[in-house]
Amino acid sequence: MTNGSTRNRLKQKVKSHIPKDWLTEIRIAYRILIETIKGIGQTGLINIAIITTMAAILTIFGTIFRTTLSLSSIVDEMGGSLEISVYLEPQADIASTTKQIKSIKHVKSVGFISKEKSWNELKREIQMPDIDNPLPDVLRVKVDNMKNIDSIMTEVKKLPDIQDTGYAKELAQKAEALNRISHTVTLVVMVVASLLTITIINNTIQLVIQSRKEEIEIMRLMGVSNWYIKCPLVLQGAVYGFFGALLAIIPINIVQKYLQAMHEHFSIPVFGFAQGLVVLSVILVGVVFSAGGSLMSIKKHLQV
Fold first, then answer.
1. In this structure, are residues 269 and 79 in contact, taking their beta carbons and an 8 Å threshold?
2. Which H, E and C letters describe the chain, residue by residue?
3. What is the pLDDT of residues 119-170, one digit of tens each?
4. Band (10; pLDDT cuts 50, 70, 90)
5. pLDDT at 136
6. Integer distance in angstroms from the first to the last C-alpha of the chain?
7. Model confidence pLDDT, tens digit, residues 37-82
8. How many Å apart are CA 27 and CA 17, to the nearest integer?
9. What number of other Cβ atoms are within 10 A of residue 194's Cβ?
10. Which pTM does this prediction carry?
11. Which of 196, 200, 209, 192 has its CA nearest to residue 300?
């Protein structure tokens, strides 16, 4: 008896030191959590279908997004290794021309190949007649990004002692086009994934609202605030999105391993936070659009 009364006094003492507003907030948060779990429970086995469907949608989005990041790394690496060939006039001042080219914005480095070296290599590869060397001295100009090649070539052509310039334009254009296509596909897939997510959650929350229609009406008659009614339904949608995203991360990680192996094989650096960025994006897309779908469903089917 003494122990029981002591515990009661301790409880009263603890409660007296906790602000009543805190207790109210805790009770409300607890009730919202219970209502969320209750809504998920009422959906039954449909939960599995919802989560797996969302996982499939998010897997497609995450895989394409991750592949796009790898393609961007490849294109950037190609741009960094792509060279502009600058052919010099016979009387050109090589040191002065090299210095001027290095001063151009977005130029990484400038290398020199003498006409004698080029001629000797050519003669080793194919049989040449005994004639004077017709080749010019060449400067190999590396750029920092493929997008800057045309602007650099324009600046180089303005310099004196330049006979001609050239680079693998067709290859650069194809790589840049591939990069643009991959970014466009990622954006389209994200939009489609978002719409499908919102549609699935919309239909699910509609079922929950219909099954709890009388209960919700009673709460409204009792003066329960609108946000208290909305919050469990929005959280329920967010829960579906979160678990769908977690499930989607498994196949995305498998794709990541293959892409990592490809980068290592071709000695191409990987985008620093690629995997973390993809995982975070998949979770955000799943949770935000699922919660948004729930909110849209509430406004459409529940006048609160």
1. no
2. CHHHHHHHHHHHHHHHHCCHHHHHHHHHHHHHHHHHHHHHHHHCCHHHHHHHHHHHHHHHHHHHHHHHHHHHHHHHHHHHHCEEEEEECCCCCHHHHHHHHHCCCCEEEEEEECHHHHHHHHHHHCCCCCCCCCCCCEEEEEECCHHHHHHHHHHHHCCCCEEEEECCHHHHHHHHHHHHHHHHHHHHHHHHHHHHHHHHHHHHHHHHHHHCHHHHHHHHHCCCCHHHHHHHHHHHHHHHHHHHHHHHHHHHHHHHHHHHHHHHHCCCCCCCCHHHHHHHHHHHHHHHHHHHHHHHHHHHHCCC
3. 787 777 777 667 777 788 888 888 877 777 778 888 888 888 888 887 766 6
4. very low
5. 85
6. 50
7. 877 777 777 788 888 888 998 998 888 888 888 877 777 666 656 6
8. 17
9. 19
10. 0.64
11. 209
Question: What CA–CA distance (Å, rounded) separates 281 from 61?
Answer: 9
Tokens of residue 176, six digits:
């840049």
